[in-house]
Amino acid sequence: MGSSAKKKKEKKKDFQKTKLKVGKARPKNTNATDTSFSARSIVIKQQSLSEANRDSSAVFNHNLSLLASKNETQRRDSLAFLSNHIVSTEQLPQPASAILLKALPLILDGNSSVRTQVLKLVRVLPVAQLGPVDQALLYIRAGLTHLSIDIRLHTLDLLDWLVSVKSNDVVSSSGGWIKLLGTFQNLLSWTTVSTSTAGLSGKWSNVKPAASSMSNSKLFVHQLSSLALLLTAGLRAHTPSALPAQQQQYPTWHADAHALPTRSNTYSYLNLFAATRDLESMMYESAQERQEAFVESGLRDAFLLGVENARKEGGETGRAAAGVAKAISLASND
User: Fold this and answer.
1) Least C-beta-crowded within 10 Å: which of 75, 91, 262, 316?
2) What's the DSSP call for residue 240?
3) pLDDT digits (tens, 9 = 90+) for 112-159
4) In 142-179, which positions are buried (b, 16+ CB within 10 angstroms) versus exposed (e)?
5) Cis amide prior to 209 (ω within 30 degrees)
6) Eight-class DSSP state of 259
7) pTM value?
8) CATH for the stretch 57-131
């Protein structure tokens, strides 16, 4: 019995709270860790942050990879570094086409400073090394239809730059003519049904609403200016270079008409195999083909009606609409 009572008393000690006396420190726990020790450390008084000893190509590629970073400040700083590096050097570690493909998705970035740096970067790239513009047109069409007005404005700036440096490649590439013009038609809400005949024919009309704010007005004017630039690049016929004097004499008159064609698939317009045509994604390599497609698709009539309504607003909008009308006049009526 004595041993049993002793065991019970020892068990109760674990659940009893010790009463502390006034002025007496609390006893340390049995499992307390002693943290009074200190470890030895090495102190560097001065550290060089210069990247002079690093390979410039490695630094360039590192900043190029940071364009996919989740930090917007890092993306902006990387774009600024790439722009400064391209300006200061003649030989690029990466082809300009690869740099462009990395930077194009950032035109849809939510940060305005990042998009501004993208425009600065693409403008310093060597034009001869840009390569095909198909991927650029995909991001441009996505940016033109974005919900954010600021992203639309920056995308229009990108389109203006691309048309100014590679106009023929843009309008003759797949989806660079009818599909891109159709995107502008949807953005501007221009249709071939006028408001005067809509009520008589029973059809709905789609009229561009008046700009309700300064940002919408600025966007509308920029859209008209970019459309005029695109139409001028696509509808203007490129005058062939004059033949040498010895080729303009008999019997070599009209030698260019009898020479071998300079374009691929010369007889594609005949559609000999009756394949289904995708007018939006077709490639229109000559100005005549683009003019015919522009008229036959109904875009010419729709744009003329929209321009007529836009010119009535006057001011900056009217001047931009006049530029579109001048570009449309390049299309033949045949």
Assistant:
1) 91
2) P
3) 999 999 999 999 999 988 888 999 999 999 999 999 999 999 999 999
4) bbbeeeeeebbbbbbbbbbebbebbbebbbbbebbbbb
5) no
6) S
7) 0.72
8) 1.25.10
